[in-house]
Write a structure and sequence with these properties.
The chain is mostly helical. It contains 3 helices and no strands.
Amino acid sequence: MVEDSKIIISMIQSMLAPGLMISACGMLLLVMNNKYSLVVSRIRALNDEKRKISIKSGENNFKFEEEVRLQSLITQINLLHFRVKLVRNAVLSYSIAVGLFVLTSLSIGLRFSLGLKQFEPLTMGFFAMGMVIVLTGVIYAAMETWQGYKIVSYEIKVHE
């Protein structure tokens, strides 16, 4: 009876690490999904402004300021399109990592419940792949932050 409780306690402790990583990835996913929504909203707003300028230009010739603004909008939309791809890649990375950590937990549970030691390399593989994928997501998130800075710098430079 004491041996069974030790096994259960050991199993629960082993399953905590992937559980914590699932929670951490959930937080990262929440942040990146918010960024995704903001970037998509910004793209839509800029596209709307671009459309209005284009419709207005059909009525008469562009003023110089309108031409400059239109070119600025086109550039920003293209930069934001690249940025939204980076956010998407970060979200996909974190989502895949969650899946790998769930598989880690399941393989730990199977290892303990069925007493299969051959699951240990598989468990470590799932966990290690999950960590690598989290790192990949972090790299995409860092690139997205840098891209956001470049877009703001461009906007400031155009309006100086």
